[in-house]
Write a sequence for this structure.
């Protein structure tokens, strides 16, 4: 029992002698961590939002937007509305403070897995394209491709990727339930690859040896060889030209990749493969915002764009026209390049949208 408890509570439990004293010490440390998190929420979010200096004359909160970023994504400051707590971490419901005017509603729309879809497009990765076409949980599908025992369990019918319509499958568990650990690692890799994360970085994140992280990385690439090939080509092109480009041809100069210092070279190489993904995501969202701003339908419905946050946009307008505005918004965002003559993407863009009275309820 001592070993089980120690394994669950870590070194602090043993450092304070184990038993009840060890449990009390762990509870105190946990409370200190909570206090630090609460202090961060107060100082970064709640207090600034209560201060009159960031509110306009009608009591609405306004931020400053910066378009001069390395990848082309917008950033915000005074206050940083893009840095509000994520929904699952918003234990004090800070997002409820952001609400529509009386008689109005918010329409909030977010691209689903935009960066992964763009990676599948630029790399022409067949397994990713198939996974997106077939739908369902992308991270579970990644786990099936990476781990033989997960794939065998799916093929044998012991577990399901998704719940189907067949009655005999109703009681069978899902991959995400039985193989939660494998799915978490697959999910981490899905998002880390686009940022050029190395085995060293993954080992630190997971708390494992670098060899184990390298094996996981290798398993991911073995199921997606087109991504590895694209990354190597992109880095080689950046070393030759000194820059990388986004989907719409915007350039980012990469002086670090031409340096002799290996650390600087590595940073430049990561930027070379990250910018075409993050920068292209910025292209998609910006083109969608232009279509939203130009939409006669949205104007006639009385809806205007309030804010863009990463891959999400927030509009406000009369409550009675909310459903029509939502349908128009989704239509515009799903096909952002139609009016500029670019080749269509090899993967569909999925938009999750909702109508709500405040930002918290929209998610």
């Amino acid at each position: 029992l001592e070993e089980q408890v120690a394994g669950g509570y870590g070194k602090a439990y043993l450092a304070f002698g184990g038993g009840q004293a060890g449990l009390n010490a762990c509870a105190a440390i946990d409370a200190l961590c909570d206090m630090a998190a609460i202090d961060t929420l107060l100082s970064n979010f709640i207090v600034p939002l209560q201060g009159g200096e960031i509110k306009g004359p009608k009591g609405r909160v306004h931020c400053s937007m910066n378009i001069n970023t390395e990848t082309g994504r917008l950033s915000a400051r005074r206050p940083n509305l893009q840095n509000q707590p994520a929904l699952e971490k918003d234990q004090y419901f800070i997002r409820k403070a952001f609400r529509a005017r009386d008689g109005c509603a918010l329409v909030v729309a977010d691209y689903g897995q935009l960066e992964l879809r763009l990676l599948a497009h630029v790399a022409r990765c067949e397994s990713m394209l198939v996974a997106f076409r077939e739908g369902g949980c992308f991270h579970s599908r990644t786990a099936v491709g990476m781990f033989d025992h997960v794939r065998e369990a799916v093929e044998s019918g012991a577990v399901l990727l998704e719940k189907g319509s067949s009655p005999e499958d109703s009681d069978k568990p899902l991959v995400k339930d039985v193989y939660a650990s494998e799915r978490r690692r697959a999910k981490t890799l899905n998002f880390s690859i686009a940022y050029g994360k190395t085995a060293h970085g993954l080992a630190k994140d997971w708390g494992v040896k670098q060899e184990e992280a390298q094996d996981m990385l290798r398993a991911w690439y073995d199921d997606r060889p087109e991504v590895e090939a694209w990354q190597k080509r992109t880095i080689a092109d950046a070393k030759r030209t000194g820059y990388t480009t986004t989907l719409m041809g915007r350039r980012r100069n990469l002086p670090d990749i031409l340096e002799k210092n290996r650390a600087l070279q590595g940073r430049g190489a990561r930027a070379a493969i990250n910018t075409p993904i993050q920068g292209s995501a910025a292209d998609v969202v910006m083109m969608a915002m232009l279509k939203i701003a130009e939409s006669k339908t949205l104007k006639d419905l009385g809806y205007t764009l309030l804010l863009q946050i990463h891959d999400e946009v927030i509009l406000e307008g009369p409550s009675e026209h909310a459903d029509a505005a939502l349908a128009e918004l989704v239509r515009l965002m799903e096909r952002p390049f139609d009016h500029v003559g670019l080749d269509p993407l090899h993967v569909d863009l999925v938009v999750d949208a909702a109508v709500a009275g405040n930002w918290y309820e929209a998610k």
